[in-house]
Prior knowledge:
This protein is an alpha+beta fold.
Amino acid sequence: MDRYEKLLLSWCEYLVKMQNEDGGFRCESCGVSHGRADNAVYPLTFAYAKTGDAHFLKAAERVMRFREKLTCPDGAVKNDFGSEWKGITVFSVINLYKTLHYFRNIIPADFRRNLEVCLDSSSQWVFENIRPGFHSYINYYAAAACADAMYGSYKGNEEYTRLSRVLLSYCMENFTQNGLLRGEGQPHDITTAKGCAAIDIGYNAEESLPCLIAAADILGDFAALEKLCKYAKILLEFMMPDGAWDNSFGARNNKWTYYGSRTADGCTGVFTQLGGLDPVFYEAAKRNFTLLEKCTVDGALQGGRYYAVNGQKPCVHHTFCHACSLTDAVIEGIGKYNGKYALPCEGQGTYIKYFPELDTYKIRCADWYATVTGYDFTPGNYIKGASHASGGSLSMLYHADMGAVIAGSVYDYRRTEPLNMQNYEGETRHSSLIPRVEYEKNGKKYASCFDMGATIKAEKTGDAICVTACSRLVLLADFESEQDAPIVKAEYIFSPDGIKINVKLNKKADGVKFILPIIENTAQLFSDSPCHKEKIFFLTGGFAADEYTFCVQNMSLYVSIKNTGMV
Length: 567
């Protein structure tokens, strides 16, 4: 048994251990049985096929009984008890199909018939409802293209196949010139004041792109498949050297984990599948897998590497979703690849890459990787701080030896999807990891990271890069600035020796602070200015950090970040 099968089986054992009498999984963090639990029928059946151990088969049968409680008369499956959202039926269809496709000849006849009946009724609901005009983010269109293609192929039903082609074509039209899928917002083609689109790297990598590639493959649409492979290669620009996804600015990054997303299946399967076309995809699959290994404690996939040591209980959603993609990867043969290749972010010297649809700069300088963002798309239900960094923030800083040093995400962790986001538990202060300038006046808080109108300029000089960001101090409640608040000019100077940050104000103002959270045990700060240091933790991204707070006196502040050699 290789390490890939070992991790997958450990996850399945954990699911068996957490299974309730009704077939759902007890969530240690959320205290509920998550409605999408039936997706686990696929990895649990794989575990049975691999080991012959009947307790995996029984667990798969029980989780289907749990599914019955959430299934509506029309065949749809509700997201959770008390939720009326039925779009997740599409993910149920995909995993039912995979279970039957791979294992129908080794499972008991009564269990197979049950899966067939559920597949028929749920596929019909998806076919009748998820069509152009269906009110959802585009990841559901991508998933429906996949589900319809699967069912059409399995049953020889040309109507499903035709609709799959329509949905695939629709999604293909929503890729930007840089190969990123827009539509994680409403309407799908929404454009902001800066010309940005609704894009989330986590959902692109772990849900939409895998579904579209599967659909194109089943349909035999080789032109679409060729384009999707190209887009997948571009998407790897956002994979960090340790296999993490830089979604520090994504439209839905309130659900970001460092390895992907809270409720998506993952990327290991699709990249293993593409590895035969380009070995860099094998490399990406293995690096992301290694990160998943590091985030697993006692068989449970945590929301980040720092969760367990900071008293955060695991949400079972992470495990049963990502077990699906890992099952794909094992079946596709992830363990057969033994080469070593550079990811797109590696081995390219000093560079600046700008993504206008995100108003975001990706930077490489020697062993330093960075992201500076002014992204201005915000879904309506994520207002009041529950949104990604903007304002010219240094949202990601990574060193080749130390890993992530800065990993910003949202300012205010709010459970905008209450049953898909866990609560914080712990004594350490729960606080944002976004570097930012803050200002208080009359009891109101303003921050630079809220400014969606910030301007950014990046220049390369020799082996150094200077990025200048100008932003207003913006009120959390409505993103409006205070009339007398100073304007912030932040300079980030990247060189092989380290990062220099200069914060300047256009006028004097009392109470202006620069807050710089540095992930613990990574880099060291140097400054002539005094600061307050405090331990913090943040669920989004899942890091513990040292929060340094500086008073911006005399209208300027200088801070340097250097590699200390700590790992």
